[in-house]
Amino acid sequence: MGTQERKLRERERRRQAILDAAESLFFEMGLEKSTMDMLAEKTELSKGTLYLYFASKDQVYYAIHVRAKKLLCQYLAEAAGKKGTGLQQVLAMGQAFLNFAQTYPNYFRAIAFYDLPGGSVAEEPWATEAHLYGLQGIDYCVRALKTGQKDGSIRMDIEANSMALVLVAQLKGLVMLMQAPPPLDGAEEFNPVALEAAMFDLVRAGLSR
Amino acid sequence: MGTQERKLRERERRRQAILDAAESLFFEMGLEKSTMDMLAEKTELSKGTLYLYFASKDQVYYAIHVRAKKLLCQYLAEAAGKKGTGLQQVLAMGQAFLNFAQTYPNYFRAIAFYDLPGGSVAEEPWATEAHLYGLQGIDYCVRALKTGQKDGSIRMDIEANSMALVLVAQLKGLVMLMQAPPPLDGAEEFNPVALEAAMFDLVRAGLSR
Amino acid sequence: MGTQERKLRERERRRQAILDAAESLFFEMGLEKSTMDMLAEKTELSKGTLYLYFASKDQVYYAIHVRAKKLLCQYLAEAAGKKGTGLQQVLAMGQAFLNFAQTYPNYFRAIAFYDLPGGSVAEEPWATEAHLYGLQGIDYCVRALKTGQKDGSIRMDIEANSMALVLVAQLKGLVMLMQAPPPLDGAEEFNPVALEAAMFDLVRAGLSR
Amino acid sequence: MGTQERKLRERERRRQAILDAAESLFFEMGLEKSTMDMLAEKTELSKGTLYLYFASKDQVYYAIHVRAKKLLCQYLAEAAGKKGTGLQQVLAMGQAFLNFAQTYPNYFRAIAFYDLPGGSVAEEPWATEAHLYGLQGIDYCVRALKTGQKDGSIRMDIEANSMALVLVAQLKGLVMLMQAPPPLDGAEEFNPVALEAAMFDLVRAGLSR
DNA sequence: TATGAATGAGCCTTCATTCAT
DNA sequence: GATGAATGAAGGCTCATTCAT
Fold first, then answer.
1. What pLDDT does A117 receive?
2. Cβ D145 vs Cβ D71: under 8 Å
3. Using one digit for the tens of pLDDT, what is the confidence trace for A122-167?
4. Which of D37, D54, D71 is the C-terminal boundary of a domain?
5. A2: how many CB neighbours lie within 10 A of its CB?
6. Going by C-beta distance under 8 Å and a sequence separation of 6 or more, which residues neighbour residue D45?
């Protein structure tokens, strides 16, 4: 019978619906200010039911985090698969990261915030899946760097593993800066386009031979 | 009589003692999980007394944040004052930033966390002083870049204002990565020294002519 | 199924039980000195549960106030419906008011205190229902006065609207006096029966033709 | 030496200054919302000093209450001393009461609120002086009533002691009604002048022969 | 006498989680 | 599986009062 299977699918659908609601809730209100009551109301489910699908509020947040990393991985994978030199691939991945962050700023925050030292959910025993996705993103970058070194588009004296991490960290830092609320009087402060250009300039010049 | 003056000094000393305790508390437990009760216990003061020195929990945190930015500014100022080419100054400031982050990881977090989008205290009307310190740090970097362009150590086609922000963002991202808790099994994951080296390599190559 | 209906009834029952407890608590301790902890203990409910039924302490008090005015209105309505001249109706309503105040001294206080200038809950946006009950009481009195003027039991030169308010104010003042605690040594001070008699004497003579 | 005497006068002056400040504070903010800190700031005295003059916050309030009753007594005494029939004296005292309440609405409230059952300070062992002033006011009224019975302006079958209390209670109730904040939409509700007229009409007709 | 820093009990309210139905 | 009433441990903050100086 497909009965059991159908039930499973149904359950997964519900789970995703909860996550959808949680996403918009958490990102609108902030994680700490969001309550399970609000989530229950938004999902039109009872509070008890929520706990049938997620063991805790943190788990809900974690699931969103995983979602976000999964999606980011897809963006990176696509960029990594493009034709071109290794350097071009690296730059394409950088662009993909920026696109992701601009298209899904909330997802980006879920990733950035979650990884923060002292972040609310990190260091939990079940935080495994998310980490793997993170590693995979790094791995794409490492491979592209090595490809670039083989095809001559990237300097040979670069240590690919470390540089990949540096590039990712740089991207995260940049997006966090760009997404930070203008602290005062809403002054123009900086031009996102110019910022991106400067970064790509730095990376291209810094990596290429 | 210096009585009044002494009282004022005494008061300031107490204030700083509270901040010291708050620092270690907040950074150990995280801001949200720290309570005023805990702070009272740690300072061996009553809860009421705490509110004689700080109007709210947020204000305590903000004061730490200001402290941190002040100190970081000193680090940067010192580096910015060193002899050498503009490029060397830029790199020296990068090194100073890393030194600061390693010497005072908690202060670094205070800065990084506070600036986070959706951060708990940002956008308050009194969050001005802190912002100015931030701007000053950027300014040091801009000047060093321009100096480098004049003395020939840095490419002329670089837009100093944007690049300064990129460099700062990069540093923040890198330190956040390095300070992130090893998410699992404590695997070595990455080598901080190699990471720093890779970053300086990227920056030097990326900026110089 | 009447399941849902039963639940609703159950909920209402609980609500009333909380109000019962709150009544005796507030009137014993005074509103300001009563705490939600006390109310929780008295109802043998947790403090959190209290907030499932009432949004705030003020709302609890307000609910009591409404209860009181509702009951008073019933007393007045009954008296207003009696046979007799208008004057007799007015006096009957006065007597009903006194009966109410003697039977439910706490309710009387809830009304008197709530209406007090500077009372804690007044001027809230939801304080509407209560006010309407108050107006209705006045209305009964106005009608009785006019009836009396038609049937000749009450002087024609009396302005019914103003006189109704005067009579109500008089009654309130009198009951407040009678309910005031003997400030010292418990001396007899005054005789409630004589007081009532004096008031009815005054009103009868003052109104009749 | 007049030294000690001067000190005593100085002390009394300070005491009165505190009361002046407390009056405007309490009546502006409400008793419960006023804090000793506020009073200290208003008097430009330290909080500790306040406790040198008054044993508690309640005592401060009580002193204001006494002040108020004293002043009311003066108003009544003056009216009671006027020439005319007993009835005229009674009515004059009523008018004096209304004048007092309109001139010093805050004082009136201090009296009315303090006497309220469950009022914050009542039933304290030291609440004696105030009570005496209250009795004196009653006494004036009793005498005027008896005078009226002698001079034929007031019915003989009235029991002066009870009627005096009724009249006072009536006045209090009326003023409380008139001072109550318009509960809704600021509608005109009632006309104070008409109210006063109605009351005097009732009393005159009710008392006179 | 005057100060004001320190106290600490207490207040109202919130909310993640549980569990009987 | 779904519900939602009940829980209770905190949480941030207030304020009348005390006391060493």
1. 43
2. no
3. 445 555 666 767 778 889 999 999 999 999 999 999 999 999 999 9
4. D54
5. 8
6. D18
Query: Does residue D49 sit in the same domain as residue D63?
Result: no
**CB-CB under 8 Å, A159 with B197:** yes
Counting residues of chain A whose pLDDT is more than 90, the rounded percentage is 57
Within this chain, do residues D25 and D97 fall inside the same structural domain, yes or no?
A: no
| pLDDT tens sequence across D21-63 | 999 999 888 888 899 999 999 999 999 999 999 999 999 998 9
D114 & D61 share domain: yes
The pair of structure tokens assigned to B200 is: 């300086």
**Are residue D154 and residue D141 in the same domain, yes or no?**
yes
Q: What is the pLDDT of residues B131-157, one digit of tens each?
A: 667 678 889 999 999 999 999 999 999
Structurally, chain B folds into a number of domains equal to: 2
Question: Residue D109's domain spans which residues?
Answer: 56-207
- Please, which positions of strand E sit below 7 A from a protein CB? 1-20
User: Closest approach of chain D CAs to the CA of C68, in angstroms?
Assistant: 17
Q: Which of the residues B159, B201, B204, B208 would you substitute to probe the A interface, choosing the one with the greatest number of A C-beta atoms within 10 Å?
A: B201
Tokens of B147: 């100096």
Residues D4, D72, single domain; the answer is: no
Q: Which residue places its CA closest to the C1' of nucleotide E5?
A: B49
Q: Which of C177, C190, C205 sits opposite D206 (nearest CB)?
A: C205
Find the range with the poorest average confidence among A85-99, A128-142, B69-83, B112-126: B112-126
Q: Are D162 and C191 within 8 A, CB to CB?
A: yes
Q: Is residue B126 a contact partner of residue B62, using CB atoms and an 8 Å limit?
A: yes
Residues A41 and A61 grouped into a single domain? no
Distance from CA of A9 to the nearest CA of B (A): 31
> Is 60 exceeded by the pLDDT of residue D123?
no
A76 and A175 assigned to the same domain: yes
Residue A177: both structure tokens together: 């800066």
> What does the alpha-carbon distance between residue D55 and residue D60 come to, in Å, rounded to a whole number?
8
Domain identity same for B45 and B111: no
- Shortest CA distance from A160: residue in chain B: B198
Mean pLDDT over residues C172-178, rounded? 90
Q: Among B13, B39, B54, identify where a domain stops.
A: B54
Q: Are D205 and C201 in contact (CB under 8 A)?
A: no
The separation, in Å, between residue D51 CA and nucleotide F17 C1' comes to 9
Is the model's pLDDT at A118 over the cut of 50?
no
Question: E strands within chain D?
Answer: none
